[in-house]
Specification:
single chain; 272 residues; alpha/beta
């Protein structure tokens, strides 16, 4: 396992500046997306995937993961919305072409929401159909697709996530904070580690999606051990953010990032 930094943690910086920060603080890996100032231009990426890959290659950091948005909002072209499969498949083929050219191992997107007129069960069924179609596209590429279950999606409980994995075989970009803030225990979330293709790290507690490291309830040394025992050997992306979503805008992103870095490095050194 190794650390990465998420480019969207620093929305005021350019992509090249976030890569420089990753190098300076000794991480040397960066997750990228199309979000905000440090994000790639999505229209340009879809128009010329290989040119976008050339920009990534110039960053001089490892890029383990790309966060893709099919639509322009949480609801737009989400996976649980009927009628989106064809357009999402077309875009995914271009995104996978980009990822393979850039040497990016995983791509994640969100699972979808409970759309107007749907139940959670119906949203799960539509999303499962979408995911199977997207997996069919991905089978011809090296990069692996996965989903991140998040609060306010239809997949915000470990049980629903397990059902979705069972129905599709999709793997996860797993972030404990989305479950912890809803009241699930760490042991309940641990069961999802065997499905992980990518990991996000930030502290949280019940009722708060993002918390200062010292005030949160996630036991990160235990989490690292659970991942290792599950055979996970990929990136651990530190994802403190400065954004209005669920009041995640008041923390010192750099201080919390360095604190998480040190927590992992201290744990990792014990197994050396």
């Amino acid at each position: 396992m190794y650390l990465s930094l998420t480019s969207w943690s620093f929305p005021a910086l350019t992509l090249e500046e976030t890569a420089a920060i990753s190098r300076i603080i000794g991480i040397g890996a960066l997750d990228i997306s199309t979000k905000g100032r440090p994000g790639l231009d999505k229209a340009q990426l879809l128009d010329d995937p290989r040119a976008a890959a050339e920009r990534v290659a110039a960053l001089e950091v490892k890029v383990p993961n790309f966060y893709h948005h099919f639509g322009d909002s949480l609801a737009d072209r989400n996976l649980a919305l009927p009628g989106t499969i064809d357009a999402n498949q077309r875009d995914l083929e271009k995104v996978l072409t980009f990822a393979d050219a850039a040497g990016i191992a995983t791509i994640f997107f969100l699972p979808g929401i409970v759309n107007p007129g749907q139940s959670r069960s119906q949203a799960t069924g539509v999303a499962a159909e979408s995911i199977r179609a997207l997996l069919d596209v991905a089978k011809d590429f090296s990069a692996e697709i996965c989903i991140e279950p998040i609060i306010r999606s239809f997949a915000e409980s470990p049980a629903v996530v397990e059902e979705l994995v069972d129905r599709t075989g999709i793997r996860l970009a797993l972030d404990y904070s989305h479950f912890v803030c809803l009241g699930y225990t760490q042991e309940q979330i641990d069961l999802l580690c065997r499905h992980a293709a990518h990991i996000h790290l930030r502290q949280a507690r019940m009722g708060k999606l993002q918390e200062r490291f010292a005030r949160g309830s996630i036991n990160f040394p235990a989490l690292f051990g659970t991942l290792r025992d599950a055979g996970y050997d990929g990136a651990l992306a530190i994802e403190y953010v400065h954004q209005d979503f669920l009041n995640a805008s008041s923390d010192d992103v750099m201080t919390e990032t360095v604190t998480m870095r040190d927590c992992f490095n201290d744990w990792n050194a014990g197994g050396a």
